[in-house]
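re the bet — no i am not wrong, look at it urself. input seq straight from the record:
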Amino acid sequence: MNEKWLERARTSLEDGSRSIPGETASRLNQARQRALNELDARRVAPRWWAGAALASLLAVGLAIGIWLDSSPDPAPVPVQPAASPLADLDVLTAVEDLEMLADLEFYLWLDENWAEDAG
């Protein structure tokens, strides 16, 4: 039933458009062109608005990121200095075996070289 109605409407519109005087057809065409131009102008505005909205969202995101990054840092963990080979010398000298003291120059040399290698 809809197909029959559409066919009759199409036929009626085509017959009517053939009988319109040229001046009227020209005015209708001009009105149609103005309407289409206004429609194009309206389509441009939302694109500009979308760009402004996106820029605003990016600015808010950046502000939140800076705010979160500016939170106080946790207390630094103290770093223990590296122990040198002579740090255990007191323990070694406390032992009754004092033979190690005979190599004291070696331990001093070892301490100097250990500091050079570590730094």
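see?? The helical segments are 2-18, 22-69, 89-93, 104-118. told u. also Residues 77 and 110 are 30 Å apart (CA to CA). so pay up
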